[in-house]
Amino acid sequence: MCFGSKEKQLYNDNDDAPRPAPGHFPAQPTYADPAPKASMPQQVQQPYYPPQASTPVSPVSPQQYQAPTPAPYQPTMGPPPAELSSITHSNPPAELSSGDFAPPPGPPPSHKKDSDYAPPPGPPPSHNAGNDFAPPPGPPPSHTTKSSDYTAPPPGPSPSSAKPAHDWEIAVPDTSLFPPPPAIFSGWYESPTSNASEEEAKKGEAWCEAYPLIAPLALDAAALSILRTHSIRLMTPNTNFMGSLTCTAPGIWSGATEPKSTDSCILGYPPLYSVREHSPLATGRTKTVYYEALVKGTTSSNPFHSSSNQDITLALGFTALPYPNFRMPGWHRGSLAVHGDDGHKFINDRWGGKSFTEPFRRGETYGIGMTFRAVDGGRIETEVFFTRQGRVSGSWNLHEETDAKEDLPVTGLEGFHDLSVAVGTYQAVAFDLVFEPARWLYKPADV
Asked: Could you tell me which residues belong to the region Disordered (predicted)?
């Protein structure tokens, strides 16, 4: 390896340096650096021994010159090179020139104890008591004295001796009389009694898409007169309705259907709730709409209806307009109803509804109503209630907490659309519908 530029040659063709006399070997030049290399260990230089002197010979011509025979090798004085290491480490010979590579003084690094990786002084961390996480002073919590035990009574006289003891039964009200919470996740995928086909449900949805909800109506004088006298008119469906529907007195209707009748919805006019006439946001008053129905059994005029209480296929509810008259109320948008065959409530629900009350029974009177009340922020709070034999047997808030995945919107029922009577029939059922408040078993306020 080269450690610098090439030095000037000692001998060349133009050099006039003296040459050795014939028969003598030239002296070997010494190549030594001015100072030893710090990065290379110094080595011991073998001592120089000049060759043995030979007898001078007379000059001869180049043609007669013969090279002298070299003398045999003689071992030098002193120890062999293998034993120089100990000398070199302790006392290097004086004849070592400054240009030789010799190892640094002292023992080799592997024997140098000062450079070993020794542990720091002191005990190891696991035995260092000063840095340990010692427990806090005092006994552990399980051995806490009674003075600091939170389950022990406070020191001093008994509270009963100073003042009466706290009676938690007085501070906490009795919730056993509270109404049960709403059944949020009590929806049925189908009714346990009777169900319409999926094809009919798709037809109903297609009809609602073709005929969206209408804006509130401006009632004429005749319609307003009907509302004041409670002489609601009922319209029988022009399809699927097999039976009779007759007005027997102002505000009283009698109806009956045959066993082969399919799903149908009877609508009333004018709407019981008119936005232009009854909205609490406009009038500042609470408005309640309500009607009742009597479920009848076998009579001479209705031979198809037995006295059995099995599957009374009558539904009582309300709906925004328009609504498909070949579907039961409560199955599509803008409508709600309570069905008598299973006692379920339906709010824009074409599946099985939600558990609400017991199934209807023949000979009993049922009623359904809605109360609209203005609240802050320009909103209307709507409460739906259901009566049985003149007493409220169940109710729900239209905006109560519902299942966002299972329940559909209640648009059309919130008090911003007109709402009409909606009575659903299926197969054989006989009934009387009562709109005259004087004939009601239940007397609601704000009618």
From this structure: 1-165
* Residue 70, both tokens: 């070299």
Residue 85: how many CB atoms within 10 A of its CB? 12
Residue in 280, 146, 270 with CA at minimum distance from that of residue 219? 270
Q: How does DSSP assign 268-327, residue by residue?
A: EES-SB-HHHH-HHHHSS-EEEEEEEEEE--BTTBTT--S--S---EEEEEE-S---TTS
Let me know the angle formed at the C-alpha of 280 by 276 and 286, rounded to the nearest 5 degrees: 125
My answer on whether omega of the bond before 81 falls inside 30° of 0, hence cis, is no
The model's pTM: 0.58
Q: Is 267 helix (H, G, I), strand (E, B) or coil?
A: strand
Alpha helices (H) in 96-230, listed in sequence order: 159-162, 168-171, 198-210, 221-229
Query: Whose structure tokens read 């017991």?
Result: 358
Q: What is the maximum span of the chain, computed from C-alpha positions, in angstroms?
A: 176
Whether 122 has a pLDDT exceeding 80, the answer reads no
